[in-house]
Amino acid sequence: GSCRHRCCPGRNNACWAPGARRARCYCDSYCQRTGDCCQDYRTTCRRAAVGCLVGPWGPWSGCSSPCGVGSRARSRQVTVPPRHGGEPCPDLKQRRGCLGEQPTCGTAK
Questions:
Q1: Which CATH fold would you assign to the domain 53-108?
Q2: Is the model's pLDDT at 65 over the cut of 70?
Q3: Which sequence ranges are marked TM in the entry (predicted)?
């Protein structure tokens, strides 16, 4: 079978070609794990692989708790999604702990 007309990222059971002895061979990047790639998968699909690219981290949010333990978060965007079995995207969100210390925290009403 041949992948020359189709290469798919991830696991995609619809991305196949007729192979030897009526068996299907696959052209999705998951076929590398399952070992059922078409003969030309590496030369045809891996050559066209594009890895994920992400932008810079945004600013940290304010602390989720004005008084006491909370968390801050930040995120970034995908600028180029992965294609044809390219490297997947790294984490797009991060979270870290913080301690809210607004001036009114210690005042009892």
A1: TSP-1 type 1 repeat (2.20.100)
A2: yes
A3: none
